[in-house]
Amino acid sequence: METRILGKALKVSAICLGCMGFSHAYGAPTDERETIRLIRRAFDLGYTFFDTAEVYGTSDDPHINEELVGKALAPIRDQVTIATKFGLRFDFASGKVPVPLIPDSMPGTIRKSVEVSLKRLHTDHIDLYFQHRIDPNVEPEAVADVIAGLIKEGKILHWGISEANEEYLRRANDVCPVTAVQNRYSMMARHYESLFPVLEELGVGLVAFSPMANGFLTGKYGKGQHFDPKNDYRAAMPQFTDEAVDQNTDLLKLLNTMAAEKNATPAQISLAWMLRKKPWIVPIPGTRKEERMRENAGAAQVKLSAADVQALDDALDNMEMSAVFGGHKSN
Ligand SMILES: NC(=O)c1ccc[n+]([C@@H]2O[C@H](COP(=O)([O-])OP(=O)(O)OC[C@H]3O[C@@H](n4cnc5c(N)ncnc54)[C@H](OP(=O)(O)O)[C@@H]3O)[C@@H](O)[C@H]2O)c1
Predict the structure, then answer these.
(1) Rounded to the nearest whole angstrom, what is the distance from the C-alpha of residue 286 to the centroid of ligand 1?
(2) How far apart are CA 83 and CA 18, in angstroms?
(3) 87 lines ligand 1 (CB under 6 A)
(4) What CATH number labels 3-317?
(5) Is the CB of residue 160 below 6 angstroms from any atom belonging to ligand 1?
(6) Closest CA to ligand 1's atom 15
(7) Helix and strand tally (H, E) in the chain?
(8) By C-alpha distance, which of 227, 255, 231 is closest to 239?
């Protein structure tokens, strides 16, 4: 697969495999052996960049995703880039289902988190360590200072911030240069385009999460779709309601038309659109299915011209669309 550079020097596959869905948020977790097989298969298909987090798991096994990613990648550790995240923890005391996540980036918490993540990932270094969410109780300088120490110790090589805003990013970057932000970005959630000039100025990459609007942009989810509210967050996402499917008729038509023109699929168009916008954007689609991994990887080969991207943007700017999960800046 084509490679890209995040920040000054972090070389990654143009498409990252988002590993969250194997264990968290998209229904009951996949079986361990199958998850390991699929992650290794992704490597065979060209993915060399894998994303996980310490909180991708279930109430019974809150850190299972990091463990599985670690096991799967251990034999090829020196050929892959692993991103994981700190700064969120499960609020088991809330008694709510699904268990909510709350921010915690206290310096002591970060230091503890990195040690356990290294163990779970079977590695002596994390390639890219993201602060999962801004903690309103901890200044960006304090977080960046801990990270600078961890980089000096060789425990992490690069760092980033998820759902970063301009002020936080600039302040953190002044203390310890940031390699990438990991923000929500898709054809349905374009609010972070306003951050692009800042990313360009600072030389910071964008790892785009939920790049297919949690799967909606693939065009494979229609009316009457049922998601289990106990463990599948899509049950509460506004883009998957029957009304939303109607409101998104033009959007799906746009994707299907461009897909037919380019001999591609709607999923591939939604990813190729952002790949062609900037050379420093790396989408991070998640799937538990081998065929879809192959399909998503194929987006890197879809040829969209600048005029195609502009035509898509113009159409997106002017069309009716439903609400989408996380469609506004979260901080
Ligand atoms: N930093 C953060 O706060 C944050 C938040 C959310 C996610 N993330 C990261 O971003 C990654 C991706 O985000 P996401 O999973 O929320 O959204 P996404 O990649 O936009 O969508 C994933 C969903 O789409 C489906 N899907 C994937 N490829 C498909 C295809 N070709 N055709 C049809 N359906 C397809 C998947 O189902 P199947 O598994 O059934 O294929 C899954 O339900 C996660 O894995 C995680 O690593 C980060």
Answers:
(1) 3
(2) 10
(3) no
(4) 3.20.20.100
(5) no
(6) 286
(7) 11, 12
(8) 227
Q: How far is CA 270 from CA 16, 18, 64, 187, in A?
A: 15, 16, 30, 7
Q: What is the DSSP string of 57-75?
A: S-SSSTTHHHHHHHHHHGG
Q: Which two tokens stand for residue 303?
A: 């040829």
Q: Where are the domains of the chain?
A: 3-317
pLDDT in tens, 157-168: 999 999 999 999
Axis-axis angle for helices 266-275, 249-261 (nearest 10): 80
Instruction: Give the count of beta carbons closer than 10 Å to the beta carbon of residue 99.
Output: 18
Give tens-digit pLDDT for 29-40.
Answer: 899 999 999 999
Q: Which residues contact 197 (CB under 8 A, 6 or more apart)?
A: none
Q: pTM here? A: 0.96
**Catalytic residue set:** 56
**In which element (H, E) is residue 168 found?**
helix 166-175
